[in-house]
Amino acid sequence: QVQLEESGGGLVQPGGSLRLSCAVFGRIISIDVMGWYRQAPGKQRELVAAITGGGIVNYADSVKGRFTISRDNAKNTVYLQMNSLKPEDTAIYYCNGRVITTTNLYLTDYWGQGTQVTVSS
């Protein structure tokens, strides 16, 4: 079984910063793409940022220049540094990992439980 454990959410004022972390646990052989998604009330879940094992990154237009995704492959952990936060960034942020395990040799998507990010004065 694979578990993704997120941390780092919370309440921050506009213009502030937060750093999200997500560690992947389990009988892991390899992790392909890791990413962060978010879902605001009444809206669909959307991709925020993603990073491949080789470090290629992709960002939603709305966060380019403000958010930075990174990963530590040795620790099976992905990070999201969020700067210049805006009220419209308020959402539940979910970590995603595409993983191969010892019991499932097909790349399979796994999700974290979500962490709330609220940007408000």
Notes on the protein architecture:
This protein has 121 residues and is mainly β. Helices cover 0% and strands 57% of the residues. It is built from no helices and eleven strands. The strands form two sheets. Strands 2, 4, 5, 6, 9, 10 and 11 form a seven-stranded mixed beta sheet that branches. The termini are far apart. The mean pLDDT is 96.
Report the uncertain regions.
Answer: none
Global Rg = 14 Å
Give the distance, in angstroms, between the N- and C-terminal Cα atoms: 40 Å
Which range does the strand content fall in? over 45%
Describe the sheet with the most strands.
7 strands, mixed
Shape: elongated
Properties at a glance:
single chain, 7-stranded mixed sheet, 121 residues, 4-stranded antiparallel sheet, mainly beta, 57% strand
